[in-house]
Specification:
mainly alpha
Length: 341
Amino acid sequence: MSTRNHASLRGGLSDAVRLVARTVVYVLLGGSSLVTVVTVAGLLGPALALALYTPPVAAWWTVFTAVVVQGVPFLLLGALISAAIGAFVPERVFTRLLPRSQALAVPVAGAAGVVLPGCECASVPVAGSLMRRGVAPAAALAFLLSAPAINPVVLVATSLAFPGHPQMVVARFAASLGTAVAMGWLWARFGRSGWLRLPKAPSAGPGASRAGSFMAGIQHDFLHAGGFLVLGSAAAATFNITVPRSVLDVFTASVWVSVLLLAVLAVVLCVCSEADAFVAASLSQFGPVAQLAFMVVGPMVDLKLFALQAGTFGRPFAVRFSSATWVVAVVSSVLVGWWVL
């Protein structure tokens, strides 16, 4: 082996070791920082609320902290996957895996959502990275909607929340995948490029290595999306403490009204998709179709997801896409629920 090959091999090994060491340091520092922030917030938040003699503030802080803590780990997962896609996966991989026709690429991308075990916080940066790598927006959006709703973690959680009712798992999978594919097709047919602001690739500086691009991608996606996660969580906490439960009980008498009510609640409560099945099961005063609508709408349209989409793809896109997704998700839930449940 020539001297040049030896030098190249040593350089590659050195870069790999530096990348692993840097990743471990970032994960340890980030994890330690997150634990410190959550601990301090958990101790000081209620103490501050009690010092102000305002129980609603304590309740708001509890809900806000719970939503943020649920979303941050999966947001970090999404940032890691997004950065890895942008730095290490060649564009030709996606062009080979997905059919050239958007009509065929959309269901393939929607079905691929089963491979990402995360919630909606993770799917937004991943979908943005896919678009940057040349994937058609319609296919990337189908993946964005399906990934948090049909992955194995969510389906297992649903089966545990509804023991003895496997039809609820089937209904959730069918309604969620149907909504994702339908929205992908609708965007391919009616979407306008002016509505969608394609996310820019994070820059690691001129002449940066793939490892540098990877770290720049993590920093960009996690910090950028994290701010909108906090904004959406604050809105969800505000709703939780301002709407009394007695008002919700009025709407349980009508099947159709209860479906619409839980579809709206899913938007404002911002429950992570890994936990929303247990929340839906606890709403036993509502019928199974309404519970299904809660689980289908939540991972696709909620306040924190709207904020993440607006920050990543632009507010005009988020308004149009979220509104249409909510309608399609409700209709899909009713149709599948009537057929399966």
